[in-house]
């Protein structure tokens, strides 16, 4: 899905290095579809059906550059620049950032890599393989979007040792769009994020365990903490893969205060080399409250080629005890007190 070029002439002119010493990859994804949801608010706040074009339903639309340079002795310099965009408007994603998905540079070797910049958090790195839909728009992200968030101003370590992958991250201020949201003089705890975990994949069985902690993004809230501990398990038996997952959350950070347990499970079936089917359910148990939403999701994909696919994604969100979760999560796209059904038909191309 990625096209590599050695850039021999450029390397020779600018660095005098051999072709094998430097690599550059241009890559990208365009994902676009039509979504229909019910019980969305109309202009008067009444439940209505909404049909619209939507970008990034299975994978976020993006383009990027990544590369490395051989420094000798098994050491290499590495970099990654990844820019998200909306395929329906052409606008930059992630709040208009040029390289809002990822932007980092570092060093790699036999003992792993250390990079600095903007990264995915460790929740995404280690739990992505345990979501049957691959963390599509309708997935575990519906219950907890922190599973696919990023950290600015961060240092990350990633190492693979046989069947074990180890990842750790520390951020001096995970969201630089917040005024004084991190890296504040005299207050190193403001906007701090740290996390770590491992994934063990000896064969058909795969297990992941991860911890992530974030602090409040103001001087007044610097001692407030948002903690997550999560685990995932998958087992592959030929064309069928089974998934189970759990996430514990405890937080006294404003707007995310409280505690909950999230449980999910599902199956993925490779019916033919071109057709795959996936189904999952996720349930949030909110501590001290009856507001416990339940969601179901189904995904079918048909590969037109190695790079192009058609897909159909559907979900049902059931709200109980005053919960207010739509198929796309807790947002303004659901009239409170209702359940919601959503469906997306789309096409995805990788280059």
From TrEMBL:
Query: What does the entry list under GO cellular component?
Result: cell outer membrane; pore complex
Q: Name one GO biological process term.
A: monoatomic ion transport
State the UniProt keywords alphabetically: Cell outer membrane, Ion transport, Membrane, Porin, Signal, Transmembrane, Transmembrane beta strand, Transport
Give all residue intervals belonging to the Porin domain.
9-321
| Residue ranges the record marks as coiled coil | none
Q: Which Gene3D superfamilies match?
A: Porin
Membrane topology of the entry: Multi-pass membrane protein
Which compartment or compartments is the protein found in? Cell outer membrane
Q: Which residues form the signal peptide?
A: 1-20
One MF term in the entry's GO annotations: porin activity
InterPro entries reported for this sequence: Gram-neg_bact_OMP, Gram_neg_porin_domain, Porin_dom_sf
Quaternary assembly: Homotrimer.
Name of the protein in question = Outer membrane protein (Porin)
Source species of the chain: Collimonas fungivorans (strain Ter331)
């Amino acid at each position: 899905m990625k096209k590599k070029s050695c850039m021999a002439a450029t390397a020779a002119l600018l660095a005098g290095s051999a072709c094998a010493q430097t690599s550059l990859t241009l890559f990208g994804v365009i994902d676009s579809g039509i979504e229909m949801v019910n019980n969305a608010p109309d202009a008067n706040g009444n439940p209505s059906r909404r049909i619209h074009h939507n970008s990034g339903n299975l994978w976020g639309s993006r383009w990027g550059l990544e590369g490395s340079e051989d420094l000798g002795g098994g050491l290499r310099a590495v970099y990654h620049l990844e820019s998200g965009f909306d395929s329906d408007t052409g606008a930059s994603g992630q709040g208009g950032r040029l390289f809002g998905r990822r932007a980092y540079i570092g060093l790699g070797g036999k003992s792993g890599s250390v990079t600095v910049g903007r990264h995915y958090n460790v929740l995404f790195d280690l739990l992505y393989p345990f979501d049957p839909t691959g963390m599509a728009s309708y997935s575990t992200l519906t219950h907890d979007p922190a599973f696919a968030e990023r950290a600015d101003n961060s240092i990350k370590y990633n190492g693979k040792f046989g069947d074990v992958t180890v990842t750790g991250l520390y951020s001096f201020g995970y969201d630089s769009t917040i005024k004084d949201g991190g890296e504040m003089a005299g207050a190193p705890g403001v906007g701090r994020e740290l996390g770590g975990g491992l994934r063990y994949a000896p064969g058909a069985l795969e297990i992941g365990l991860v911890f992530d902690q974030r602090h409040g993004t103001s001087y007044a809230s610097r001692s407030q903490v948002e903690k997550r501990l999560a685990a995932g398990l998958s087992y592959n038996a030929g064309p069928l893969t089974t998934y189970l997952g759990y996430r514990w959350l405890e937080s006294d950070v404003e707007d995310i205060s409280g505690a909950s347990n999230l449980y999910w499970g599902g199956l993925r079936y490779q019916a033919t080399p071109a057709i795959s089917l996936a189904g999952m359910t996720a349930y949030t148990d909110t501590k001290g409250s009856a507001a416990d939403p339940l969601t179901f999701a189904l995904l079918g994909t048909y590969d037109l080629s190695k790079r192009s696919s058609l897909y159909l994604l559907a979900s049902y969100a059931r709200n109980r005890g005053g919960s207010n979760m739509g198929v796309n999560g807790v947002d303004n796209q659901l009239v409170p007190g209702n359940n919601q059904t959503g469906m997306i038909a789309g096409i995805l191309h990788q280059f």
